[in-house]
Amino acid sequence: KPAPANPQQMDYYSDVLVLTAVSASPPGSEEVLAGAKFPVSRVRFPLNFQMYRENLLLKKPGVKEAWEKIEDTEDVIIRASICPSDAPTFPCENPKRTSQGVAKLITNIPGLKDGQVIRAPASLQLQ
After folding, report:
1. CA 58 from centroid of its chain's CA atoms
2. How buried is 99 (Cβ within 10 angstroms: 0-12 exposed, 13-18 middle, 19+ buried)?
3. How far apart are CA 8 and CA 11, in angstroms?
4. Looking at residue 111, what DSSP letter applies?
5. Is the confidence at residue 104, as pLDDT, over 60?
6. φ and ψ of 20, to 5 deg
7. Is 104 helix (H, G, I), strand (E, B) or coil?
8. In whole angstroms, what is the distance from residue 65 CA to residue 71 CA?
9. Which residues 6+ apart lie within 8 Å of 33 measured at CB?
10. Could you tell me what percent of the chain has a pLDDT over 70?
11. Whole-model pTM?
12. Is the pLDDT of residue 28 over 70?
């Protein structure tokens, strides 16, 4: 979702940073597979993070299988949102700031063994 034309005022003491991961391939690009949230007051930018198995939304049917399918074969879209801490759901409907970037899968470069892959980090600028 694009950021609102007039961004809402941020509350650095109570807002949360919500990070989500989705498949870059349609039709999966709308289903959130993994996520994390941090109090904005504890985040120092630039932020470096890594998603782990614990971040997978395993209570949703099909997430484990979808993640295993894309983990070493597809790009992953990382989305960031700044949401009020009292939002009913995360990511929230009307984020104060948003961004998204692609964690590209890199294969077939000199020095990598056959079948070995590297995932490049996504770069996001909250707007």
Report:
1. 16
2. middle
3. 9
4. T
5. yes
6. -130, 155
7. coil
8. 10
9. 21, 22, 23, 56, 57, 63, 66, 67, 70
10. 92
11. 0.84
12. no
Q: What is the pLDDT of residue 7?
A: 64
Q: Which residues pair with 99 in a beta bridge?
A: 80
What is the three-class DSSP state of 39?
strand
CA angle (88 as vertex; 83, 94 as ends), nearest 5: 40
CA–CA dist 120, 41 (Å, integer): 27
Q: Is the pLDDT of residue 91 over 80?
A: yes
Least confident of 6-15, 62-71, 90-99: 6-15
Strand partners, 79: 20, 100
Residue 98 is predicted with a pLDDT of 93
Would you state the structure tokens that stand for residue 62, as one six-digit string? 């099909």
Write the single-letter amino acid at 50.
Answer: Q
Query: Tokens 């997430």, residue?
Result: 63
What local confidence, expressed as pLDDT, does residue 81 receive? 94
Residue 50 burial (10 A CB sphere; 0-12, 13-18, 19+): exposed
**Token pair listed for 59:** 């209570």
User: Rounded to an integer, what distance in angstroms lies between the CA atom of residue 5 and that of residue 122?
Assistant: 24
